[in-house]
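Researcher: We plan to redesign the surface later, but first we want a full-length starting point. Tokens attached.
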């Protein structure tokens, strides 16, 4: 769950290739609208989640126990230095490429409210260092979900030869702050960065959406060079996410396009490399929550993101 209220998406010209990729897969999935990408109806206020941190569970609940599925197991190794690329030894279509994965929030943020409430500079204003994120009604924390999907995504990208950086790997007490998350991607000179999230909105609000950086310039923020490549990256991820998961684009953000443009997120404003966020579903809706708590579906989510990244990097 990003940290702030959604702002109305701005109309921007989409690249022909990216638009074609999204349109092709949307033809086979329910819920894809015909509205202009990134230029749909402004998002409705998010009731019951809306960009504010949901009360954390007393303990971050692990993923629900399930019967064995064909999903690949989640890697358990921790990255001791999250800014150092890992993998990349295998040959493959992504050899020579660096991808940064940013698992949203931290399972222990609710134990460090003073630290995460500290204001940091995001260029155009100051915002909280980080937030707790949301959870399902049963207590499955967004931060646990994001780590799980990020581990699966890392494995898929490494199998294609990419070097992968995680902004953190459950190896620190809280955070990192949003400005540090952006800095890790910048210092890695990443070819693509994806921040993994799940939303906390009202019951009945369903589906995923990909958040794109708006054109922002102020202080340390200047997204002028990354707006268009980020839109290409985000549109491809949205298209493949539909194909691989069967989920429809959000029915409450982005005018059924699966895309939303925002200028209030430090992780995007401070990025100097192509970067997007993905909200994989709404943890507060029972139907979406059933997907998000399924290990098989989480593997499909990771596959959809990986396929979108691969399509973008391979041009």
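Model: Full-length starting sequence:
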């Amino acid at each position: 769950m990003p940290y702030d209220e959604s702002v109305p998406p701005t109309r921007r010209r989409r690249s022909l290739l990216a638009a074609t990729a999204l349109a092709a897969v949307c033809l086979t999935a329910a819920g894809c609208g015909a509205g202009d990408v990134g230029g749909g109806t402004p998002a409705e206020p998010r009731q019951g989640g809306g960009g504010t941190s949901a009360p954390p569970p007393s303990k971050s609940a692990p993923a629900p126990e399930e019967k064995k599925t064909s999903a690949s197991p989640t890697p358990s190794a921790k990255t001791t230095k999250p800014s150092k690329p890992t993998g990349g030894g295998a040959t493959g279509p992504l050899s020579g490429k660096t991808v940064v994965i940013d698992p949203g929030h931290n399972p222990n943020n609710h134990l460090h409210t003073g630290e995460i409430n500290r204001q940091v500079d995001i260029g155009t204003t100051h915002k909280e260092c980080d937030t707790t994120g949301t959870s399902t009604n049963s207590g499955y924390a967004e931060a646990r979900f994001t780590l799980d999907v990020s581990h699966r995504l890392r494995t898929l990208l490494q199998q294609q030869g990419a070097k992968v950086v995680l902004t953190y790997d459950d190896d620190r007490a809280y955070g990192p702050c949003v400005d540090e998350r952006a800095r890790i991607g910048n210092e890695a000179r990443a070819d693509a960065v994806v921040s993994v999230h799940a939303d906390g909105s009202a019951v009945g609000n369903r589906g995923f959406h990909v958040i794109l950086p708006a054109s922002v310039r102020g202080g340390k923020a200047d997204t002028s060079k990354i707006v268009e490549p980020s839109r290409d990256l985000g549109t491809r991820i949205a298209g493949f996410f539909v194909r691989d998961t069967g989920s429809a684009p959000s029915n409450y953000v982005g005018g059924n396009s699966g895309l939303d443009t925002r200028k209030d997120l430090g992780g995007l404003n401070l990025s100097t490399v192509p970067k997007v966020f993905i909200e994989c579903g709404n943890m507060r809706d029972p139907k979406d929550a059933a997907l998000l708590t399924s290990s098989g579906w989480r593997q499909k989510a990771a596959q959809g993101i990986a396929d979108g990244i691969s399509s973008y990097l391979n041009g």
